[in-house]
Each structure stands twice: as C-alpha cells, then as structure tokens.
Amino acid sequence: MTETSSQKPSLWRRYLGISLIWKLAVALVLGVVAGLIFGPDIAVIQPLGDIFLRLLTMLVMPLVLFTLMAGIASVSPKTIGRIGGKTVAFYLITTAFAMTVGIALALLISPGVGLDLPGGTEAEEREAPPLAEVLTNIVPDNIFGALSEGQVLSVMFFALVAGVALSFMVDSDDERLAGMGADLRRLVDSAVELVFILIRGVLQYSPIGVFALIAVVVGETGTDALLPLLALTGTVYGGILVQILVYVGILALFRASIGQFFREVREPMLTAFVTRSSGGTLPVSIQAAERLGVRKGVYSFTLPLGSNVNMDGTAIYVGAATVFVANVTGTDLSLTQIVTVAAVGVLASIGTAGVPGAGLIMLTMAVTAAGLPMAPVALVAGIDAILDMGRTMLNVTGDLTCTRVVAKTEPGMLAEPEAAADTARSDGADSPPQT
Predict the structure, then answer these.
(1) For range 389-394, the mean pLDDT
(2) pTM for this entry
(3) Under 8 Å CB-to-CB from 358, ≥6 apart: which residues?
(4) Model pLDDT, residue 429
(5) What is the 3-state secondary structure of 182-233?
(6) How many angstroms separate the CA atoms of 309 and 293, rounded?
(7) 245 Cβ partners below 8 Å, 6+ apart?
(8) CATH assignment at residue 409
(9) How far apart are CA 202 and CA 199, in angstroms?
C-alpha cells in the first residue's frame, strides 16, 4: 500500500509534467469559452490576470542585468578571433534586420487596430523626447535609479560595460584580479540561475493568467479579439518568409548552392519547428553543417553560439507584437519608441535566448521600454506556442546560414559539399549523431 501510494504522482507533479504549449493552448480555448458564456460578468477574475502581468514586469530588470552581464563575460576577449568576430557581427546584423522586418510588416498590416480592451489600457498621449535625448539617457547617472524606474536601455548599457570589464578581469594575468573575476562571474552565474528558476515558476502560473485575461477580453468584446490575433500570426509568419528570402540572397552573394543548402538543412528546420528548441536541434544542425562541407573549426563555434544568441525569428515576433500592443492601446509609435524597441530586441538577444519563454520575456522588455501598457501581452501569450514554432525554425536556419557563410570566408574551412554529404551520411550509418 505504501509502495503504491509513493509511486503515484501528486496532482501538482502531474500538472508540472504537462508541456507548457498544451497548458497555454487549453488556457486560450477555455478563456474564450468562459468569456463567451459569462460575458462581462467574467471580469471578477481580472486580478488573476493582473498578477501575471505584474510577475512578468517584476522579472524584467533582474533578467536584463544578470543575463546580459553573464553572456558578455562568458566570451573571452582574447580568444574570439576572426571567426568569433564574423559570427557575432552576422548574428547581430541579421537580428537587427529581422526586427526591422517585423516592425515594418506590422506597421503595414496593422494587427490589433480596432480592438478595444477593457480596463483602461489606452496609453496616455505624451510627447516623445528627441532621439538625441534618448541616446544620451542610455548612459545612466545612477544605475540604482535606472533599475527602480525600469529604464531598460540604461540597465542594458551598464550590463554590457560591466560584462566586458568582468571578462577582462577573468582573463587578467594578475592572479589576484583573475581570482576575484572568477568569483564574481560565479556570483553572476548564480544570479542568472536564480532568475531562471523564478521565470520557470512564473511560466507555470502563466496558463492561469492567460485564461483570466483572455476570458475578460472576450467577455467584454465577444469574438472581436480573435481576428486581430490571426492578423498578428499572419504578420509574424510573413516576416519569417521575408527573412528566409534574405538568407537566400546572402547565400547567393557568397556563391552557395541554394538547392544544396536547403536540401541539407530541411531536417533541422523541421526538427526546430516541431520541438521549438534551438538547443535541442543542435545535434541535427551539426550533421547538416557537415553535409554542407563545413569544418568543425567553424561549426563548433557558430552553431552553439547561434542557439543561444541568434534570435532572428524572435526579433520578428517582438517587433510585430509590440506594434500589435501599440495598436490595441491606441498608441501611435514614435520614431524614438521604434528605435528603442529595435535596440532592446537586438541587445536582449545576447542574454535571453536560452531562457524558457524567451520570446514572451523579450516582448515584455520591449513593451516596457516603449512605455506601453502590459495588458495586451496576455493576448499574445495565448498564441505564443503557434508563433514559437515558426520563429525557432527561422533561428536555426539563420544559424546554419551564418555557419555556411563564415566557412566560405575562412581558408580551408569548407570542403566540397557533395563529398562532405557522402562522408556524413556514411558516418551516420555507422555511428550515433554527434552532440
């Protein structure tokens, strides 16, 4: 009897064992059904949704500070070299372009226009400060003030500078300084793990928050909220298609065979789409890189780094979803706000790519930095899993595009693709996939 009862998992354990994608999907459907059944009376559960929004906002500042510091400090200034410089430049430039694509398409399609959320989510009209003032204010005069006031760009600037300084400390020839740097990096890494645990806890609560907020919205607006969400989904996937065409152009510029490339990378693309994990797709991506003829000296750096830094798909999602939030709240985004959102998206990609729910966290950062209300973010969270499949696929495709391009520019790092494919396939028949 004791043995049987000990083997039976508790209700909470069973809940934790369910994939988040299914929990959010069920929450979305139940929220719509509850809103249609109870109508405006469902507003009684609004506090459950407000708690979810406050939890997301609470995590933004510590997440920005610690993950960005840890990400920068983990790269040695002495060992990056040519391959590292090219890889980082490629990832940051394509992420910035992807963010621009997401924002531009959303401004063109205008998802969310005409949808009015209950609860006074309209943003107050305020004059946007000049761009020069925004750039100046990126440098904080008081980091603690920036943290308490939620100044995302200022905190990012401090984290970048502190991360570079910490990297130099760890690599110092002075043993005393290197020892203190190692201790400090362990402390920062520990803080990152603490934040990740908090994020996992918030994500376990997210289905309740999503259910409450969507139920209230549908209860107040009927089915009017569903069409804008379809428009947002179409916008994000349209941006993904545009970015893939950009990759095709880059590959053609470096004289890569487009047909050969997509034949070899279709497996990791499909794996990423299904699993929604760049890290989980890494072994499949490595095999694809070998079939493309890329040497280990390149892909052993570009692919692991890309799975944690390259976020082109997420950048499109964040750009489009931020415009969606602005449209729902009736806000006309100024040039300053657009530039701020783009900067946050690009810089945040350095530290948050490996975080569970990274897209939702980055969207929270962007919305906070743009000074927009958080309530519409819950609507986006309800369809986040659908968007996550496409953006993860794009992230992995970008990783392999960068790998192929960097290998082409490095002497001796690219073999003949046909021979490499034959070798990789024959090796794969006799041995397990590389990890």
Answers:
(1) 88
(2) 0.69
(3) 311, 314, 352
(4) 42
(5) HHHHHHHHHHHHHHHHHHHHHHHHHHHHHHHHHHHHHHHHHHHHHHHHHHHH
(6) 23
(7) none
(8) 1.10.3860.10
(9) 5
- Domain assignment present for residue 6? The answer is no
Does position 171 have pLDDT exceeding 60, yes or no? yes
Looking at the structure of the chain, the number of domains it has is 1
DSSP 111-130: TTTT---TTT-PPPP-PPPP
**Quick check: 368 and 149 in contact, CB under 8 A?**
no
Q: How far is the C-alpha of 315 from the C-alpha of 97, rounded, in Å?
A: 9
Q: Is residue 11 part of a domain?
A: no
For the chain, helix, strand, coil in percent to 5 are: 80, 0, 20
Residue 388 lies in a domain: yes
Amino acid at 236: V
Cβ burial, residue 334 (10 Å; 0-12/13-18/19+): middle
Per the structure, the complete domain to which residue 421 belongs is given by 19-430
413: part of which helix (H) or strand (E)?
A: none
Residue 404 lies in a domain: yes
129: confidence class by pLDDT, cuts 50, 70, 90: low
SS3 category, 294: strand
Cα(138)–Cα(124) distance, integer angstroms: 23
- Compute the average pLDDT of residues 317-333: 89
